[in-house]
Amino acid sequence: MRFTHIISGLIITALVAFAPAKQAYQLFDKAGKKTTYEKMLADLQNADVVLFGELHNNPISHWLQLEVTKDLHKTKKQNLLLGAEMFEADNQVVLSEYLQKTISRKNFEADARLWPNYKTDYRPLVALARQNQLTFVATNVPRRYASLVSRQGVEALEKLSPEAKKWMAPLPFKIDLTLPGYANMIKMMGGMHGGGHGSMRMKPENFAKAQALKDATMAHFILKNLKKDQTLVHYNGTYHSNNFEGIGWYLKQKRKKLKIVTIASVSQKNIDELSKKNQQLADYTLVIPNSMTKTY
CATH number of the domain at 25-289, please? Predict the structure, then answer.
């Protein structure tokens, strides 16, 4: 009987030892080949701007953002800046006051228009910046102005006060709706809204223009704060930087020689191989199992 138990134990041990490891993510390079975190990090250290595209409710995206930022800080020190879509430009004062330890966390979180998942997903990044006295740029256009464009078109921005216009890309700004990201958005919205006809329906073109306003504004505040020899890591929804469009496109319109490294986040059933639809999205693609739990 004892011999049988020993054999059974050895069999179980062998099965566990040879069971495939469960990976939480896999990185791929621009060519679609598997790569390592170390190789990606070495590339990021030489970038002027890192556009880290996330899946907003994915814990691996948020965890890796934090790890990348901590590791970049080890070498860049005070030449590392942070920026995020999740903070609107007119909240820069309250964000900076909190980072400078002028106001309490309670006051900051009460006054800033924070995303519902701030505490789990973005607070660690803000805490890292506060602890190390790093600049954190609120890059996004106030949502009320993006909503205005969605409803009335980009022309409605001209009616705003000079004070309001401080919180967005300088007007007028270039919009190219033939870029695949915007074109696909128009196509998608057209299907959802029956072509956008009718006074109560949002025009698909205006929805794409609101997206362009966000992208242009984020690029504007990145460039406004970035200085020579610095690296700014920007956290944004992956669709804002996929296919080297969006924020990256606007950055290149102003500074063609800017070294931008993009990271896209995607979810796949099989993470051992980059699917065809997810190829050429970015310089690096973070592939996460679609069975991964969500933060909301």
Answer: 3.40.50.11550
